[in-house]
Design a protein that fits this description.
alpha+beta, four-stranded antiparallel beta sheet, about 40% strand
Amino acid sequence: RGASGPARKGRGPVYAALDLGTNNCRLLIARPQERGFRVIDGFTRIVRLGEGLSVTGRLSDAAMERTIEALRHCRNKL
């Protein structure tokens, strides 16, 4: 999923993509160029959000806390 950030004078838009899955949280921040994008920042963390889910049918408190902490880090980068 992409979201554009505020354009900086003379630099154009900046886009970010966040991928949150059952194992990882990833963030990629990039600026468009002639033939694609130039990555300007990124972040990845193993959060194990789905740890134990198949056994209990529920997300564990520890897994949710790890994930929330990773999302806070992403928020700070954005």
